[in-house]
Design goal:
The chain is mainly α. Helices cover 73% and strands 0% of the residues. Helix 2 (25-34) packs antiparallel against helix 12 and helix 5 (79-99) packs antiparallel against helix 14 (336-367).
Length: 372
Amino acid sequence: MTLTIVLTLVLVALVFEYINGFHDTANSIATVVATKVLTPGQAVMLAAGANLIGAMLGDEVAKTISSGLINTEVAEVGAAVLICALLGGIAWNLLTWWLGLPSSSSHALVGGMCGAAIATVNRWDAILWSLPADPWYTGKGLLWKVVVPMFTSPLGGFLLGLMMMGLMFFVISSMNNQSGFLGRISKPRWVNSFFGKAQIVSATGMGLMHGLNDAQKTMGIITLALVTATAAGTLDDAPSWLHFLRTEEGGIPFWIKLLCAVVMAAGTAAGGWRIIKTLGHKMVKLHPIHGFAAETASATMIGLASSLGIPVSTTHNISAAIMGVGCAKRWNAIKWTVVERIVWAWILTIPATAGIAYCLVRLSMRMGWIGG
């Protein structure tokens, strides 16, 4: 590992973070745009600001990415290997963005890391599948930190969205049968007006949770690379103005948090209109009350996962919450052909990015760029 490779890794990681920002912009603003509560420009600026703040609120997910997925006793994960992992995620994100599919940047990164780690030694135990023998232990491991939440968090978002929407329909229906003030404020005009304002709050919460969970993944990658480089002595001869790169294991430096937060916010500001169209318009017709329910349900699930250090998919959660809200209206309100395309993108993300990263590492080893 050389200083040049380490610096290249940091640059590629920031490119991934930027793409993550504009690829996942739709997650926090698709519903607020679709319901016409905010213009696309206003929604993007709101999401960018919320992402910036959210990214600074914690580091549990970053710690999982930096030390909870790869078995470093089996596979040596240097900067060059991590570059291949990031390139796998970048390639998949750009492809799904071009196709307008809301796939998961989180799972793209995890898949890339797994594929790259396995490629270095051609052994499956390069990945921490689950530790220790206790089946309920959730401290480390791909199984408990990624695979199980991959299914349970969208299911939770779906059910929470469905229940919230059902509860609000029940309350409004009950109020509608009343005379006087309660009856008046249950009319569609008042309901749309109230939830239009409430949706700004829920969209802000969604942006905060997106920053809290998604921005931390790149923080974890950069920290992992710098800890490895520091331990290997790569940074010992770096110029004095680069001494801030030296990083010891045990935490995420503030400058990494700030840098990743700013880059993600910049990417978010660039927008991701193809995916916004899919989430906000193609899947189900939304009104402000539906947008509020979907964003609140999704933000709740992501916030819970972030507190546990679980790198869940913002995309999966908001998509599932929108499905739940749509089903509360009526089952056929959902355009299931669009959902089928989204689900296939979910299923393929980890194996596809793992495969791309695996091939990149093996090619780099053949070319002599990575020691084998």
